[in-house]
Amino acid sequence: MTHLPYIAASYVLALGVPLFFAISTTFRLRVAKRRLAVIDPRGKR
Amino acid sequence: MDTRQTIAPPRPVKLFHRFANPGQFLRLSGKVLPWLYSAGVLLTAIGVIWGLFFAPNDWQQGDTVKIMYVHVPFAWLASAGYVSLAICSVLSLVWRHPLADLAAAELGPVGAAFTAVCLATGSLWGKPTWGAWWVWDARLTSVFVLFLLYLGHIALVRAFDDPTRGYRAGAILALVGVINLPIIKFSVNWWNTLHQPASIGLTGAPTIAASLLWPLLFTTLGFTLLFAAITVARTRAGVMERRIRMLLMAKTSESGQS
Fold first, then answer.
1. Is the dihedral of CA B62, B127, B217, B202 positive or negative?
2. CB B227 to CB A18 under 8 A?
3. Domain boundaries in chain B?
């Protein structure tokens, strides 16, 4: 592959951005669930 | 005889509000989310491995054609994400759909990030192919305008103390910005652009070889499912956070009264 740096950078971006969003959203959901469970027992979903 | 007539609300209102119930959304999204993530990861992995290691190089572009397997899905999702934003805006402005506001607010950053990746991967393809990172070509410029529209929506939704006003302003901007979508789509036909015209259309056969097309279909479907999963998960978090805020406010006002 003669254009490896361009291809590698493209794939790092394309896979990294959804991965970042997936991880940050999972973390956000976990925090929200925990807080909701403390405040409102009905929030345990 | 009673001359007054009761007018039943239009059916869409009933339908939308049934799914607008946050409790029902949390239950349904909790079930759907693992499937969306799993299918998205699986299809993306197949498409990426196929495209990188098994698909042939293009006779003209050489190995830079492999960038297409990620650039095209992100370009499609930049526009499709904006269509979703516009649909949420209509639901918000016309039917006051409570979930539509939250979904639109959560869609904005994901759409902006995907549009940024589309522009960046396009640039990474453009440098070895055209010899330039960027040209003010009609397609590139209109996608850049789309990115600015997403940023404007993100800023506007969060600019007011009263979130409802922010949601309304954001919804209006999103609807005004829809005019940019046909410009993006047809820019390569209307103007003499450096960006090549579409290789896949609804009316004609694709002008791309099947050996290059199949991995592209897998990555497109995979990234689309991941986009949907991320948006649903973020909306789910948004619903929970709103409930937390409401409960905390209720507790504060209760303790203030006693």
1. negative
2. yes
3. 71-193+214-245
Both tokens assigned to B187: 């820019």
Q: For A45, which of B30, B125, B244 is closest by C-beta distance? A: B30
Q: How far apart are CA B105 and CA B248, in angstroms?
A: 22
Q: What is the pLDDT of residues B158-190, one digit of tens each?
A: 999 888 999 999 999 999 999 999 999 999 888
Nearest to A3 among B64, B71, B240 (CB): B64
Please state, as a whole number, how many other Cβ atoms lie within 10 Å of the Cβ of residue B33: 18
Tell me the CA end-to-end span of chain B in Å, nearest whole number: 52
pTM of the predicted structure, to 2 decimals: 0.90
Phi-psi region at A35: left, alpha or beta (left = phi > 0; alpha = psi -120 to 50): alpha
Render pLDDT for A1-45 as a digit per residue (tens, 0 to 9).
688 999 999 999 999 999 999 999 999 999 999 998 888 766 554
